[in-house]
Amino acid sequence: SCFKFQVSKRHVFAALLALCAPLFVDAASLYFTVPKDIVFVGEDFEVSLMVDPEGELINAIGGKVTFPKDTFLLRDVHTGDSIIDLWIEGPEEENGAVVFSGIIPGGFDGIREPFTSRNAPGKILTLAVRAHAPGTAVFALVDAALLANAGKGPPIIPELRKGKIVVEAPG
């Protein structure tokens, strides 16, 4: 009999993580930047997912961005200024979340800034959204995965910080 073998991009990324599971590195943080604490119904704005490697050299990032679809309409996802050079998956909307995974050949340990010894965080992706209903909304990252650029790429357990924004009716 003939078998059809199909491997998704998500399976490849999961396999990379599984191969490196015995070694874990604690560092780095993933967080959202929101333009302000309060926006109004009908207002367009952007929310960016950022990574601060905090001294680690990262070569792969993946996860799923969740947000309340009853409060926001996802208009677009921008990656033009992303630190990710090669996208394995997405970013694309799937069942109310933006799923993504990608690699950074050579690794990422921050953006060099003049006049400081500390490297700045890098942008992974930006969500262009429109507020369409009042409420308090949280942008969160689930199933987050970071791999260090250290030979076999041990997983990094990142600190995850949510982005919170209040949507009000125009007054």
Structural commentary:
The protein is mainly β. 6% of the residues lie in helices and 55% in strands. It is built from 1 helix and 11 strands, in the order H-E-E-E-E-E-E-E-E-E-E-E. Strands 1, 2, 3, 4, 5, 6, 7, 8, 9, 10 and 11 form an 11-stranded mixed β-sheet that branches. Strand 6 and strand 7 form a beta hairpin. It is globular, with a radius of gyration of 17 Å. The N and C termini lie far apart (68 Å). The N terminus is likely disordered.
Helix content: under 10%
Give the strand tally. 11
Question: What percent strand?
Answer: over 45%
Name the shape in a single word.
Answer: globular
Mean pLDDT value: 84
Biggest sheet record: 11 strands, mixed
Radius of gyration: 17 Å
Spans of at least 5 consecutive residues with low confidence: 1-7, 14-26
Sheet/helix structural class: mainly beta
Q: What sequence of helices (H) and strands (E) makes up the elements?
A: HEEEEEEEEEEE
| Distance between the ends | 68 Å
Q: Please count the helical segments.
A: 1
Task: Indicate the topology.
Layout: H1 9-19, E1 25-33, E2 38-40, E3 44-52, E4 58-66, E5 72-78, E6 86-94, E7 97-108, E8 122-131, E9 135-148, E10 155-160, E11 163-168
Parallel strand pairs: 1-10, 2-11
Antiparallel strand pairs: 1-3, 3-8, 4-7, 4-9, 5-8, 6-7, 9-10, 9-11
Q: In brief, what are we looking at here?
A:
The protein is mainly beta and 171 residues long. The protein contains 1 helix and 11 strands. Strands 1, 2, 3, 4, 5, 6, 7, 8, 9, 10 and 11 form an 11-stranded mixed sheet that branches.
